[in-house]
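User: Hey, my collaborator sent me this sequence without any context and asked if I could get a structure. I don't really work with proteins. Can you help?
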Amino acid sequence: MVLRIFCLYSTTIFTLSLSAQNYHLGDSLKHHLQSDPKPTVYWTSYNSFMTGRRIGIQALKAGMIFNKRLTLGIGYHWMEGGVDEFLPQQGRMIPLKMRYASVFGEFVFYNKNNWVGTIPVQLGWGKSFLHWKSDGENLKWKEGMVVLYEPSISIEYKFSPWIAVGMGYGYRIMLKNNRAIDQNFYAPLYVFKARILFEELWERYQDRILTD
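Assistant: No problem. I've predicted the 3D structure and written it out in structure-token form, which is a compact way to encode the shape of the chain:
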């Protein structure tokens, strides 16, 4: 685990050093935040592995883009099925679920010929639990708080003026785990994302929207 974190950290630092070739070193977060922000909304799919099985986490995110370089926003994430845990009270395996909200930031380090490279970082908090239905009622067991940190690096391609798709790699670091559940949520992340470029639509049509 430590090795993977180190490799991800080294990759991020290396990427940041390359960004100096594309942008002036005098750029700063303060400079970007002083620009007029534009809204963005997109969907992201994370894939990782637990106990040798693929686990998918879906996310909906919304935020504001500053100067086409910095994005700040919030998201909601939910883990799909794929991992079960034995529940003695039921005498059977019960699906494991996780739900969490997040705050995130993304910095663009490369933007050329419709290719965009970003460094996303997010901090999430929520709950993990065992979930099943009995007589049509949703039931939870071993519910507990989780806090996690997910740094990553990704690249996307704008194949039209309004739509972009991309992929990336990251790692999930659990700052607080649900001790009632045996599964370990530390895992590498393989990220797939698709987004409608609302910021481009807003830039083109904002005058019409604001005057209607």
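In plain terms: The chain has a mean pLDDT of 78. You can pass these tokens on to your collaborator as they are.
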